[in-house]
Amino acid sequence: MGKLINIKDIAAQKQIAIKKKSIPKSAIESNSKSLSMLKVTISDFLGVKSNGQIYRVISIPTSYKLDKLALAVLDSFDFEMDHMYGFYDNLNNWSRSEEFYIMEEDDAYDFTGYVTKTTIGEAFEVPKKKMLFLFDYGDEWRFSIELQRVELIEGKTKLAAKVIESKGEAPEQYPDFEA
Fold this sequence. Notes:
The chain is 16% helix and 26% strand. It has 179 residues and is an alpha+beta fold. It has a single domain, classed as MM3350-like (Structural Genomics Hypothetical 15.5 Kd Protein In mrcA-pckA Intergenic Region, Chain A), CATH 3.10.290. Strands 4-3-5-6-1-2-7 form a seven-stranded antiparallel sheet, with helices on one face. Strand 5 and strand 6 form a beta hairpin. The protein is globular, with a radius of gyration of 16 Å.
């Protein structure tokens, strides 16, 4: 089916990619008073071509961790959080990503890209950056996420994730093929 991948090789590639970035991780500020505007486009699914016409724009605090972004994405498409997922910089072949953030926090993998520890501001450090949100490694639901902009918030404001634009009808997570 596919080529087996060595997770230790991927972790080493990620460390090299981090060192090559023009902005050092220590210089990235996750401002708790800023909102990231992210366009989330669902990719082709179950033989249906979406052609980029099904998307959501989500406003979410830049300081939130990637696990909260995952919940916001799934909620915006009426999906249940019932499978594993990850964020990958290779939109076409996630297994060849140099930068990726996963759920497992197993020290044996020797890297720090965990969704529960990485903020949106750290993963999406520049406008127009795109990442693949891969949900359910069996069905491989694919969502392309692009940082459109970051807005600074003044004064006391309750920050929360919300959908600010929606286009197209979300597909069913578990379609009934026998109907």
